[in-house]
Amino acid sequence: MARRPRAETMQENRQRLMAAARKAFAEKGYAAASMDELTADVGLTRGALYHNFGDKRGLMAAVVHQIDAEMAAEARRIAESTAPGWPALLAEGEAYIAMALRPEVQRIVLLDGPAVLGDPSKWPSQDSCLHATRDAVDALIADGTLLALDPEAMARMLTGAALNAALWVAASDQPDLVLPRAVVAFRQLATGFLAKPGPGLAPTRSGPQIRGLRTTSP
Amino acid sequence: MARRPRAETMQENRQRLMAAARKAFAEKGYAAASMDELTADVGLTRGALYHNFGDKRGLMAAVVHQIDAEMAAEARRIAESTAPGWPALLAEGEAYIAMALRPEVQRIVLLDGPAVLGDPSKWPSQDSCLHATRDAVDALIADGTLLALDPEAMARMLTGAALNAALWVAASDQPDLVLPRAVVAFRQLATGFLAKPGPGLAPTRSGPQIRGLRTTSP
DNA sequence: GCAATCAGATACGCTGTGTATGTGATTAAC
DNA sequence: GTTAATCACATACACAGCGTATCTGATTGC
């Protein structure tokens, strides 16, 4: 028989369990997701689950970590494809807004995550998204672009505003329609941290675009 | 016997159940709170609970509604005891930050609430806090103090930033120490919505006050 | 005073988690 | 190459907790 190394199949099983968990948690919510069902879906039993993740919460932690990492990576990609500095920070925030519209992110990371794992800043993953934003803020403070306040607080408020805006957008009747308004408001709010606020504020001009579009730099 | 009217004792039982629920939900979290224990604590059984609130979630909704209303009332009181207009809006936001430090508010409203009941904007209570902030924003837009963006989005982001900041403060090692920094950052961020940003930004001047106590500025 | 109502209690079933134990395959020792 | 140890996962069990269906004694309206 194809003697596959043990560690390999184990890794694959972990992946499959996490994939199933993402699906179940996103669709039914953490509380309503049955571990029995979930494991059966990928041809395993709860035995495998408890062996790999300790308990249901452990699986949740792993899933949240994974999604969080993906989000941070995507935000970083977007930020890097933008003019560095202030526009990149804005782009990052907008990226979070856009990502938070995905049901998976919304349900797992924003709604159930804090309830199950506590505040994001204490997550095992240490919350990559927050970290990334904090780094960006640090750089912009050193840079003189932003006011020298507590960078942790600033990062926290920016991501908080962005993610909260996203929840609002998602809960609305026509997400596609209100999304641009949220983005505009976010951009405007963020200017509060600028060391020298741009003179002409023309927020609604130049059409707010998300995901890849040029952010108007002051 | 003292023939108390039925509606009266029923009302009292409801109150007692809710009081017990606030305690249990705050201390153990929604998921870990046992309805059997909770009802026994006030000398009742689950029968009373299901009769009055439908199910566990119904009880949670009632509790959240109650706390939310209390928060909104308190915020309003604070706002009214401040110079009307912009300062009042800031005071309101700061009040939310301070209130969110209370374990009850934090655990029930901020962490478990969204997971159990969904996004605050869809809560039965319609989220009084959000509503209050929105009204304040509306007035300040009409007033010309704030930029005329989507008021819903603005309110959402302000409360989002405030509450997120509070969670951050609460999760920190020395809440008392970082709270002032959060307040300063909040005040500064909020200026982003001002129609004409003040020239000299002296956020720490005039002492950010939380619940009546003067925060030490570093 | 009597019947209808109703708040709350009692009893039951069921789902789901966690744990303790079992087992067959893989790995490592000799 | 055989054997012993390990280990990933399965099986079996105990138990807590939610929801519902049914019951009961008190209150209310007539």
UniProtKB/TrEMBL annotation, chains A, B:
Source organism of this protein record: Paracoccus shanxieyensis
PROSITE patterns: HTH_TETR_2 (PS50977)
Domain HTH tetR-type: 11-71
Pfam annotation, one family: TetR_C_41
Gene Ontology terms, MF aspect: DNA-binding transcription factor activity; transcription cis-regulatory region binding
Region (Disordered): 197-218
Keywords assigned by UniProt, alphabetized: DNA-binding
Protein name: TetR family transcriptional regulator
SUPFAM superfamilies: Homeodomain-like
Lineage: Bacteria, Pseudomonadati, Pseudomonadota, Alphaproteobacteria, Rhodobacterales
DNA bind region: 34-53
